[in-house]
Amino acid sequence: MLQATPLTEGWTLRHPDGPLPAAVPGCVHTDLLAAGLLPDPFLGRNETEVAWVGRREWTYERALDAGSGPEQTDLVFDGLDTAAEILLDGRPLGRTRNMHRSHRFDVTGLSGRLTVRFGSAYAEAEAVRGKVGERPAAYAEPYQYVRKMACSFGWDWGPTLVTAGIWRPVRLEHWSTARLARVRPLVTVADGTGDVELRVDVERTRVEAPLTVEARVAGVTARADLDGSHGTVRLRVPDAQLWWPRGYGEQPLYDVELTLLHGDVPLDVWRRRIGFRSVGLDTSADPHGTGFTLVVNGERLFARGVNWIPDDVFPSRITRERYRERLAQAAGAGVDLVRIWGGGIYESEDFYDACDELGLLVWQDFPFACAAYPEEQPLRGEVEAEARENVVRLMPHPSLVLWNGNNENLWGFRDWGWEPRLAGDSWGEGYYLGLLPRVVAELDPTRPYTAGSPWSGSWDRHPNDPAHGTHHSWEVWNRADYAAYRADVPRFVAEFGWQAPPAYATLRRALPGEPLAADSPGMLHHQKAEDGNGKLARGLARHFALPGADAFDRWHYLTQVNQARAVAAGIEHWRAHWPVCAGTIVWQLNDCWPVTSWAAIDGDGREKPLYHELRRLYADRLLTLREGELSVVNQAAEEWTGTAVLRRMSVEGAELGRAEVPFAVARRAVGRVPVPEELAPAGPKEFLVADAAGLRALRFPALDRDIPYVRPEFDVGLVPGGVTVTARTLVRDLLLQADRLDPAARADRGLVTLLPGERVTIGVRGWETPDAGAARSALYCLEPPR
After folding, report:
1. CA-based diameter of the chain, in Å?
2. Alpha-carbon 335 to chain mean position
3. Within 10 A of 314 (CB to CB), how many other CB atoms are there?
4. CB within 8 A of 647, min separation 6: which ones?
5. 485 has which bridge partners?
6. Residues 563, 557 contacting (CB under 8 angstroms)
7. 8 A C-beta contact, residue 157 and residue 603
8. In sequence order, what are the residues at sequence separation of 6 or more whose Cβ sits closer than 8 angstroms to the Cβ of residue 244?
């Protein structure tokens, strides 16, 4: 039987001051941090002080004894970051140049000093650029010339911390006769019967040895003889329980075990969990253009999604527990789809396991983002090798429902001035429209593939045409106000969003001792977007009377409000247009360090008000008010019948008109209820409220800066586990910033608007010394100009 020996202990990192203990998996930065030789690059402006790390060569070493006995011993690296030479007692075993794949070396009977020498990723990228020529990109760093996590080189939300190291596990594998080299599970279901077809490739030391595979799942067993080094075994599972996305059903998972046998002697075992479900992508033409609708088990979905970036710029620090926490936060916000963005990585098994269990659909980008990628060697061979390995590695996961060729590169070629600069040079089109779809079709025909995001499906149309396929909406934020989201109805909005700073406690930790201001040195360093603060300021000025230059707390609160309002404007509009629009994927769920960004959860894991707003926006049922109409969105499995109470209100708190309007909306549908003309708000002093089944929608027809709000008055009290607020006037966008009470404190809700006489209880956990006065000081809401 194959035996694996982890090689996690005994590593050292060479350093001018002497060898340092090295953690494997890990990276140079984390080892230097552990040794106290590097300042925390997440704090202040330390990022610039550690830039030298990414431009040096680094060497890891340990003793290796492959032993004797088995016919073969392999040294297996699950991930090397990135350009490395592997030596044993100075004798080369091989070289690597790809962070996104594993590597295997025959070390049978060998022993000695194992050395892994990492060159600078910059040096590797520059060497490739010198060979293949210049290619344009959205950023100046040379990330398109090396198969490495692109955002290591910095992004408009991320630091430039170019890593090196043994970032995934390493082990010795001892085996005889044969081992399982690859198992591809093709899992389908039809008419209640699950079908598991396991296609097996083996590596042999004995060519003549007869081999058999035996597979088990759900009490069903099947065997098959191998033809040389290949074979297929098939199992049929009657009455298979379907795996569903969260909100549509349960997530039953089945253990599959496949054993490689020589006679009755087991040689190797492969174990995974699978789920039975069908998945399709409807891109058919219709009167509105070309659709883009995910279909799971025959159910057409409005995808409620978030974009995922690496949760730490040092990915080796992300534990199974951290993945689970972050993805549970996503599920808790009503999310049912997570898009793994193409400037990051193929995530670890822990990520996909959590998605399988939580019912989160996974849209997986291949790692290409915002650049023209050369298609010549040595990159082309590496791209194909990594794609083949990762497609097979991730196939068992029922959560994985879509392969996507790239992020924004087809769009960039057409709109960002690349085409004339390339002058016919390769730029990645051959990957996205040739190599990658061919690999997916060959290895994983059970899942759909799309060439890119955005992509309209054909060069006959603009790549980012909202009427066709996927769309990225970045005119809003970059140039236009969020009201412009309502100007069109894209078929599927795969990226859109608005910035806000992280939570107050996150800023205080990241910028120790710095007087906080929107333009303080640390704040500007932790704002990576081009003219990011300018866009924040212009976005605020369109809606609010701006706070003074010294009013940081007010600026911080208003930017949080604006972020939540902006995303709400888009999602409410697009959900109201289901099924023409079939999904939204907010940019972005998470951060990789403390930074002002589009994230709903900041770099310390704290939820911004946007996170809590997503819980409302992505709930099965949603009310939204537009001029003259109430949209009743029902994504639940049952019909929704009820009565909406519509009220025309004044900002002073008077009720000026009321109507009760019945509605009945079919399952997975949207109903439209006319608002009686007499309830239309007249001028900036009035607004409209709609209530039904505990849900509320508000429509203020004027900009906040033009609304004559009364000064808010409210009472604050304490209850076990929380804070109560009772409004004596209109209190709009009330927010308890719990982390101002205690860095460990978390509130269970975000922005809430109260009418006079209404009361809300805000749950707070992690607050050891509750105090009503302190709670009042941590409460913010909209106020008239002073």
Report:
1. 89
2. 11
3. 22
4. 655, 657, 658, 679, 688, 689, 690, 691
5. none
6. no
7. no
8. 250, 251, 277, 296, 297, 359
CB 786 within 8 A of CB 764: no
Q: Which two tokens stand for residue 560?
A: 């949080």
Residue 46: its H or E element: helix 46-49
CB 701 within 8 A of CB 687: yes
Instruction: Give the tens place of pLDDT for each residue, 232-291.
Output: 999 999 999 999 999 999 999 999 999 999 999 999 999 999 999 999 999 999 999 999
**Catalytic residue status for 299:** no
Report how far Cα 633 is from the mean position of its chain's Cα atoms: 25
Reported as a single tens digit per residue, the pLDDT across 543-602 is: 998 887 669 999 999 999 999 999 999 999 999 999 999 999 999 999 999 999 999 999
Cβ(644)–Cβ(659) below 8 Å? no
With pLDDT > 70 as the criterion, what percentage of the chain qualifies?
100
| Reported pTM | 0.97
**Strands (DSSP E) found in 205-253:** 212-217, 220-225, 230-237
Q: What are phi and psi of 300, to 5 degrees?
A: -80, 130
Cross-strand partners of 105: 75
CA angle in degrees (0–180, nearest 5) for 614-617-619: 100
Q: Which two tokens stand for residue 9?
A: 């202990």
Q: Which of 61, 124, 408, 613 is catalytic?
A: 408
- Tens digit of pLDDT for each residue in 171-213? 999 999 999 999 999 999 999 999 999 999 999 999 899 999 9
Q: How far apart are CA 315 and CA 82, in angstroms?
A: 13
CA distance 376 to 121: 18
The pLDDT, as a whole number, for residue 786 is 67
> 458: how many CB neighbours lie within 10 A of its CB?
13
Position of tokens 């070396």? Answer: 105
Give the C-alpha separation, 553 to 743, whole Å: 16
